[in-house]
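seq as requested:
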Amino acid sequence: MIKYMKRFIGLLLLSFFIPVCLLAAVNYSNKTINKTVTLGKSFTITPYIDLGIPQNAMTGSAEDAPDYIVSDASAFSIVSTPVFTVNSQGNKFYPAYKHTLTPQKTGFYTFSQVVPWYYNWYECGDAVMTYNITVVDVTSISMASTMFMYVGSEELLVPTIAHVDAETTLTWNSSNTSVATVSSEGRITGISVGTTTITVTAHNGVSAKCVVTVNPVMTSGITLNVTETEMVVGEKLNLTATVAPSNATNKSVTWSSTNEAVAVVSESGQVTAVGSGTCQVKATANDGSGKSASCLITVEKNNKLTVTDMTQCSGGRGVLNVLLSDEETIMGFQFDLQLPTGVTVAEKDGKLLAALTGNAVNTHSISSSKVSDGLYRFVVTPQGSRAISQANGDGMTITIDVADNVAVGTYTMTIKDIEMTVKKTGNVYEDIHPKNSTATLTITEAVMGDVNGDGRVSVTDVISMNSYILEEEPAQFIRKVADLNGDGKVTITDLVQVIDIILGR
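struct tokens:
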């Protein structure tokens, strides 16, 4: 009522108020806004703000109802809220309204409101704010109906929504999260092999489904830690299989041997050599990919030569022991000895110093030659048709000279290219090729008086010096530490000094 009274009074005094309104220097024109909204989704409009009218140009009473018209009163539920402002002088500016509309049905509707504006409490005019409102709703959602992916991979499902302008919140769900999970954005993550249904649902219950099948990541290749090796009977070898790719679902393999009379393999990949010959030990993927990898195994009997470690001083002479492990009837053997630079096989009268040990002394003989610098070949042959004794410990010794300039340190000696001839049942012979054998040569500082190079001065050194003086050529003798008085000769005088060292004089 107060609002209408003010308008009436304003008309009577129009001729007086016009100059007052002109002082405002503004004019608020009618305006139309187009809006698209979603069924059931509330939204707010504020006509005076959309018209650009400041709140202090509004007036009215808290009891006055907003002056609006809706083309279809059943299209919206409307809650109108008055907005009040109090200025710094305590003056209260009366209501401007904001309206919260909740669409009740789809379609096209208009909402308009007449908004009077004031200057210094005098009404200067009306402006009409009109909203053309289109109410839409989600009527359907479409997306891929099926999807195939792999364990550990990610895929994004992108739904298409009709009506496209509808505002909605999508909810995602997986029927079996142990197979695949889905994020709030529709990103699918494969967890394990199987099938699950992914459902996306709009705010109004409209939904779409996608059946997701998660497949295993298949093996693309297998790599073994050893691809070819030589073994002797009874020896064991642990093979490991590396499956590619690293995210393969099933990384297990099955081990097999192409000839179990040569080598057998356990479920864990441990190979045991059981007989001479060759075979392939194979790892095959268990995921049905057909991928595999093999290791070539060559197995020899336990007949082998081993070379023992030795310690010597630079400038010294020592004995290298080569031992024979014979579990069959060995007729003969040969090998090459590889020595480090500065280390040679000693010679006497143009012949390499090497000798058989054990019973082989009576049954076999040695032939030897220098192949090249640092490489020597030895051949052991039977005298007649006799075999080397079955007793382990038979073998040979090789006298080694170490040059004066060989530095203190450790070096490697190797016997390689070993060939053996063994006698089978009757007069059948078989050639076998045992694995190479290596030993460490340790070069130490020379100790004056320690002529045998065992690291201490003892009666053994006295005996060796005595043999040397008598020209018996001891097997182990370091001449430079035997010449204690430095006269360039090894004599009884040096022998006496060694005895003095032992006695502590």
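Residues 1-17 have pLDDT under 50 and may be disordered.
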